[in-house]
Design brief:
Blueprint: H1 3-6, H2 10-32, H3 53-63, H4 68-83, E1 100-103, E2 117-122, E3 125-127, H5 136-145
Antiparallel strand pairs: 1-2, 2-3
Helix pairs in contact: 3-4
């Protein structure tokens, strides 16, 4: 994005580009060589919001040959396996914590469905109306560059 939009200086922009290029290269190599990877949003990059994981998943799909199911698995099951907590969470199975989200639309059809979470269950405790404090200016800027 142009620095007139992001308001970051050229040094920050170049540092971000270097980090991004390296991360993208590593991602593509891992996928190509079938190396287990997890997906998260804590990349220390400007304009990465922690509440819009769907953007990260969408980006992974656009930059690799992974489909929606594969990136969702990496953000759930693979992350749990990498952290060594897959016996507790990361997939739906008897004896595991009930950590779930409920959506109105199927994210396998459109990954952006993950942006509208209707309910959350954490360790079996239902949060019927979850709320997130969004940063409207950042969302609008990111939406302006996101393409269907």
């Amino acid at each position: 994005m142009d620095t007139s939009l992001t308001k970051v200086n050229e040094t920050v922009k170049e540092n971000s580009r270097l980090v991004y290029d390296s991360m993208l290269k590593g991602l593509r190599q891992a996928v190509e060589h079938e190396i287990k990877i997890g997906i998260g949003t804590d990349a220390a990059m400007s304009y990465v919001t922690h509440y819009d994981m769907w953007r990260e998943l969408d980006h992974h799909m656009r930059q690799t040959k992974l489909n929606a199911g594969q990136v969702i698995e990496r953000a759930t099951k693979s992350n749990a396996e990498i952290l060594g907590i897959d016996h507790l969470t990361g997939s739906i199975d008897i004896g595991k914590q009930a950590d779930l989200i409920v959506l109105e639309h199927n994210p396998l059809d459109n990954i952006k469905a993950l942006s509208n979470v209707a309910m959350v269950m954490v360790k079996g405790n239902l949060i019927p109306t979850p709320s997130v404090t969004r940063i409207q200016e950042v969302d609008e800027l990111l939406d302006s560059v996101w393409q269907n």
